[in-house]
Design a protein that fits this description.
By secondary structure, the first copy, chain A, is of the alpha+beta class. The first copy, chain A, has nine helices and five strands. Helices cover 42% and strands 15% of the residues of chain A.
Chain lengths: 279, 279
């Protein structure tokens, strides 16, 4: 069995009976301005793809780092150790360790990693076995991207002006902190509970948003099932802000959206075989 | 046993009796102007760290790519598929496959990968068991960096002028082609021969040069041994060019060297725990 489509991690059968290699990688650019939290977010994000397959034990992690050539030496010496410590602390919390990795100098900071586990087949929960009556559970609240974006808007008078009547600075800071702590939290307990309650499938919701990942999950199901999303946990105020942005500030967001779409569409179809994330 | 120091790959004992996870990652920037060959070089470079541990079977590879935001769409559509095909073709030649990876848009092109193998302990050759009388064998010729550099100098009249009396353009092109094909070649046969002839240690010679890697290898030996290097395979003309550059064109190279050293020295000691490569 070699499963690929719709999987958060790849699963490779090994030559040793009934054992499989489960493996995932992710690297991206910093989302938040706290390097320690960014390190934790990176680690949680990499491990999340294992957890989404019901794999609760990670045998090894590799850390992938790009250190920005635009940082001064002083900035590097503060930021990079904090980033590594955040990654490493969360890896310890996940019961794994980091043996290896690679660091390069790059114009942009890069944070990423690899998570690998060798497991018996029964430790893996495949994503495509949903049956009628299954309940979809979201383990983290939505709205992190909005929270991160409007936190940046706080430093830009024009942008802030456009949303200040729907959210206060205190609320924006609170939402940002809520988003950071949520992104920096492991989904390991959720992965354990999937086994306890015999879950029939799961996916990790990241770069393609809830709708993108839900569509993927729905598409790969073996049984004829409908996915109904009727109630969503959302970080406080983020729904109203998102709605407001959509109605009024289309010029900022349309521009960003278009840029993103250009980046995607300009890669030919074969290239999209690899997950592409740009934040 | 958890071995780290002086190893080309990390070795992690698994919970399944006598099995270990052997894993390595590497990512860097393009060295040559042929994207297909660059893809092969990337794959060979990643796998080389497994082969240096005597591991001949790779269970899975992940591909890590950064697509330069400075490329036009047309350039992307030509370069990136070729890069991926080169990587993938060599992975097939190595008897492995690529199940997973990550692509981001980045100012600079990034090429890299992860190689993972699950093996019995006796499939790993540790690097520290050299005994008196062992012969050091270099499986690829030296001089690749010089060959790549002077190939770039061919497009720069001033630089070319400084070496044109020690090498012809034809020789420079030949050296460049020799360097490319050598870098794009797997060390898998060498890894197999290590088992056949009961090798006592090995290392992969890359970013730190022959002297850097030889020093590392010498340092970790358990027995009191001396390493004597008396005869080196070098790509034709590269020794004389290197010597000439050292004597005469110090301004180009000193500048590059200093930049490199700054990059290294400005990272605090803890950061050097991860292999750092800049080319």
């Amino acid at each position: 069995m070699l499963v690929r489509i719709g999987m958060d991690s790849c699963v490779i059968p090994l030559r040793f009976q009934s054992l499989s290699l489960v493996q995932t990688t992710d690297f991206f650019y910093p989302l938040v301005d706290d390097p320690y939290i960014q390190g934790r977010i990176t680690c949680a994000n990499v491990l999340s793809d294992l957890y989404a397959m019901g794999v609760t034990e990670c045998d090894n992690m590799l850390m992938l780092l790009g250190v920005s050539s635009r940082l001064s030496q002083k900035e590097r010496d503060i930021i990079v150790p904090l980033l590594m410590k955040g990654f490493s602390d969360l890896a310890v919390e996940a019961g794994t360790s980091i043996q290896g990795g690679q660091t390069v100098v790059n114009p942009w900071m890069i944070c990423g990693g690899v998570a690998t586990s060798v497991v018996h087949a029964n430790e893996i929960i495949l994503p495509h076995n949903a049956v009628e009556g299954d309940v979809l559970v979201l383990t983290k609240p939505l709205g992190t991207q909005i929270a991160v974006n409007i936190h940046q808007w706080m430093d830009d008078d024009d942008k802030w002006l456009s949303i200040k009547h729907v959210i206060t600075k205190e609320e924006a800071v609170k939402a940002y902190q809520r988003a950071m702590s949520s992104m920096a939290r492991l989904n390991r307990t959720a992965a354990r509970l999937m086994h306890k309650y015999n879950a029939h499938g799961c996916t990790d919701v990241t770069g393609f948003g809830l709708l993108g990942h839900a569509s993927n999950l729905a598409k790969i199901q073996k049984s004829e099932v409908s996915f109904v999303i009727h109630n969503l946990p959302i970080i406080a105020k983020m729904a109203v802000v998102a709605k407001h942005i959509k109605m009024t500030c289309l010029d900022f967001t349309r521009e960003a959206q278009q840029k993103l779409q250009e980046d995607f569409s300009s890669l030919s179809p074969e290239l999209r075989l690899l997950p592409i994330v740009r934040r």
